[in-house]
Each structure stands twice: as C-alpha cells, then as structure tokens.
Specification:
By secondary structure, this protein is of the alpha/beta class. Helix content is about 30%, strand content about 25%. The strands form eight sheets. Strands 16, 17, 19, 20 and 21 form a five-stranded antiparallel sheet that branches. A four-stranded mixed sheet has the order 2-1-10-9.
Length: about 500
C-alpha cells in the first residue's frame, strides 16, 4: 500500500466537494480541482527531469503549492522536502547540502534567505513561486498551466517508498532529516480519522507552517482523507484567525499553547461563538492546566492535549471528550494500529504502571530513519521500536502522561531532575504565564536548576513565593536554586528555545 492515490481517490469519490479554502487568495478548491493541480505539478516537474527518489524542496509561506507538491510528488515517487523559512541562510545551506534537492521552489517572502542559500549551496533547478523576483528562472504558475492535467504514470511504489523528508532540529548537533515513507502518511491518516472520530463534515484551519509535520499531518492529510475541508492561512494573526474559525465554522482546531494564549487575549474572544467546534487540541509543547481551565470556564469548550513526533506521526494518542475534562495533563491512550511500551532506558525492561520510562513506539506509522545517517537511525530504531527520548508514565487505566525529554533534564548531585516536572509547578501560580528550567554549573552539585519565569501581563510574583510553591510539590533537590524573570523565546510550534536561554544565562559569551 502507498499514499500516491490518496488525493486522486478522494477526487474520484467526491470531485465537487470543497476541499480547500486558501485564505490569502480567497480561492476555494474542490477535490477534483486540487487533484488536477497535483497532476499538473507532477507532470511539470517530471518534464524538468525529476525522477523517482529525487528531492524537491520548497522555501515559501503557506499556499496551495504545498498541497500540489505534497500529493503530486507522491504520484511520481519523488520526495517532498519543505524548508523552514525561519532558519538562517547558513542553516538552510546545510540542509540543502544534505538532501541535495534537484529542484528548489522559492516564494516571494523568502528571497533574501534564498540568495544567502544559493551563495553557499546552489540548487540545479530553481522555480519562482507567485511574484518571486528571481531572474532567468521558470515561473511555477506557467509550468502548471503548460502541464498535462492527466494522472501521471506511476513508477513502482510501495509502503516503504520515501514520501517526504522533514528536518528536525533536535536538542543538540546538526538537524536530521526524518524520512517518512508512504505507509506513514497513510497510517497517520487512518489512525487519526478512526481514533479521533473525524468525518467528511469536519473543517479544520491550518495556521501553522507547512514546513512542519504538525501543519502537514495533524489535520490536513487526515481531514482530506476523510473528505472534509481545510482552511489554509498564510500566517498567523490572532484576531483574524479567531474570526476565521467562526466564519468558516471550523470543527477541530489545532494550536500550540502560545496561540491559545494569544486568542484568549484578543478583544473578540468573549464574543466568539464556538458552538460548531467539536474540540480544540493543543500540541507541540506542554499546555499549562490553568490555560486549559480558562478556556473551558470562559467558553465551555472541549479542550484536548495531543502528542506526536515527526518520526512517528504527529497523532499518537486520543481520548474521548469526557475524558479530556477529567484527565487534564494526560495525552490519552495510544491510537489504534500502534504499539507502545515504557522501558527503563538503562536495562530496556518494561516499567510498572505509575513509574516513568522511555516511550517506545512501533507500527506502520514509524519513519524509515534519518536521511544519510545510519548511525542516528540505528540509535533511534531498535528491533522495530522507535526510541522517542521522551519520559512518560502510564496509569492503571492505560492513560499516558508525558513527563519530559530525557535530554531536557539536569543532573544535580547525581539525581535526575526533569524540566517538565519543575516547570509544571511554576505554571500553577496564577501570575505565571510560562516557565523554563535549565541547568547552571555548580561546584558542589555539578549542576543546579535555574528557572526563567515569564509573568502574565500586569501580574506580579516574588521569587520567595514561587519557591514556596515548590515546597511539598517537589523534592528538595528538584527545587531550582535560582529564579529570574524574563520573556521566553519560542519556536514556531510554541516550544521554548532553551539554547537561547542557555546562551543568555549560562554561556553569555556565545550569545
């Protein structure tokens, strides 16, 4: 089984049903129209010499072109490789040098970065998207217009054929390209539709960048698989996207904690009618329980928490609406068609319910490994199990709670202190918007905790009262020795960028 026919089959079943609303252009596409665009993209790129296994990269803001490539490249066995436009030219040059795309498609908002990249790692074929002012290169719209709308001839494909390469930043070292096979795309869609109860009546907005697995696969591919509708934004504006959720009557909404905080702070939040919403779901980073409680209290909505990884699919757990209200902090139970274990990271033995262990995942939704990195692949996938590097607990009822990253911890006096556990306590304070724990060198203990606290606008809290909150909630060795107040730097998916904090507070000479 492969994923080359996901869009063409849906277009055959429901050709005239609306599939996509592209907000920036005001254009609505039916399934048949979307599939025709994908066919044209596949035929145009094949005419330029793109063959099975070739990588095609795109450096651009969200647009329908991402869907053209996502589905079109699958039909000819080429590999979709979206690039993070938030990276510097030097960072992107490393990625392009690693994956060596035959074609790079560039949007008008990324020209400065593109010029930096081309000076360091030129790409054989460049295509200008929309109004991108790149001299002497073909225009994407012209190539599509001239290409055949017919289904391209498929090469031999199966579940192991690479579908996409998505680069993950990780916590240290160079980014790695996770190779997602056709079976992963297919089974992520199946698992999400079945486990989350999605139907052809669901409408989901995509506000997050389509260079990220969350934007591509959390709802976009599952919703289109089920025959629903996607509302695609080019970027994020809190007030505009809140209005869009209401005007387009969206039913399932993915966000990261930062987005939910921004929506809640908009002038239109109290008046927003969410009667059509089935559920909101937060992913990408731990969501403060106080934020979830505020949304429920003010809007009466169902609010879930999710968990996933680029390498194993972005939707790994599920829970019912009722369970989401009583299991705050839990990500739910494992989805269908998936196996999960919690293992002692030292011995590999299964841990008992209630104890923390490394989360291991096995199933058809697991990636092939990392592009041209056999050592990293062998370290991550052992005996078919993907080692997530995340610490989790399972209770007696089978619900999982993510404790934190094994790498996101400090070791103080020989004891491991997980950042997520400490940060969760600080977030309990009514004045705290968010908190981030990092390690600070200490001559006695080797390392002690330094927590950076971001207060809510207009709120106040003292160091002493925050530390007092830790008493009785954390073992003494887990309580940070230093507390500072500052704003926190976030990635596009709401994760605190701790290397930035370490550079500022621990190693200021490298900032």
């Amino acid at each position: 089984m492969h994923a080359a026919d996901l869009l063409s089959s849906r277009a055959r079943l429901t050709p005239d049903r609306e599939a996509l609303f592209e907000v920036a252009t005001g254009t609505r596409y039916a399934y048949a129209e979307l599939n025709t665009r994908a066919n044209r993209a596949a035929n145009a790129l094949r005419a330029l010499g793109v063959q099975t296994g070739d990588r095609v990269a795109i450096l651009a803001y969200n647009s329908v072109a991402f869907l053209d490539l996502l589905y079109g490249l699958a039909k000819i066995g080429a590999i979709f490789t979206p690039l993070n436009w938030r990276l510097t030219g030097r960072e992107l040059a490393y990625i392009i040098g690693d994956c060596a795309p035959r074609v790079l498609i560039v949007g008008p908002d990324c020209l400065e970065t593109f010029n930096e990249v081309q000076a360091l790692a030129p790409t054989p074929i460049v295509i200008a998207l929309d109004e991108a002012a790149i001299p002497d290169v073909p225009r994407y719209a012209d190539l599509l217009a001239a290409a055949s709308p017919d289904e391209p001839t498929w090469p031999p494909l199966d579940g192991e054929t690479p579908f996409a390469i998505l680069y993950t930043s990780g916590t240290t070292g160079r980014p790695k390209g996770a190779v997602l096979p056709h079976r992963q795309i297919l089974w992520n869609a199946i698992n999400t539709v079945i486990s989350w109860g999605l139907t052809e009546h669901d409408v989901s907005p995509v506000f997050t960048p389509l260079f990220h697995a969350g934007g591509l696969f959390a709802f976009l591919t599952p919703i289109l698989y089920a025959g629903g509708r996607i509302v695609l934004s080019q970027g994020f504006d809190a007030e505009a996207t809140l209005e869009l959720i209401c005007s387009e009557r969206c039913t399932v909404i993915l966000g990261v904690p930062t987005l939910f905080q921004m929506w809640q702070a908009t002038p239109g939040f109290d008046a927003a009618d969410f009667g059509h919403v089935h559920f909101f779901i937060s992913g990408g980073a731990p969501c403060p329980p106080a934020l979830i409680a505020a949304w429920r209290a003010r809007k009466g909505v169902t609010f879930r928490q999710g968990y996933g990884l680029t390498e194993v699919g972005v939707n790994c757990y599920s829970m019912t609406d009722a369970e989401s209200a009583t299991r705050v902090g839990s990500v739910g139970k494992p989805i269908l068609h998936s196996e999960m274990r919690l293992a002692d990271p030292e011995t590999g033995a299964d841990v008992a319910d209630g104890d923390a262990g490394e989360l291991l995942i096995r199933g058809s939704h697991v990636c092939l490994g990392y592009w041209r990195d056999p050592l990293a692949t062998a370290a991550a996938i052992r005996d078919g199990w993907f080692h997530t590097g995340d610490s989790a607990r399972r209770d007696a009822d089978g619900f999982y709670t993510i404790v934190g990253r094994y790498k996101d911890m400090i070791t103080s006096g020989g004891e491991n202190v997980y950042a997520a556990e400490v940060e969760a306590v600080f977030r309990e304070h009514a004045a705290v918007a968010d908190a981030a724990l990092i390690g600070q060198p200490d001559p006695k203990w080797g390392e002690v905790g330094l927590v950076i606290v971001m207060l809510k606008p207009g709120a106040q809290a003292s160091v002493d009262e925050l530390l007092a909150l830790c008493q009785g909630r954390l073992a003494r060795y887990k309580i940070p020795k230093r507390v500072v107040f500052d704003t926190l730097p976030y990635s596009p998916y709401g994760k605190v960028m701790k290397p930035v904090l370490r550079a500022k507070y621990v190693n200021p000479d490298i900032a």
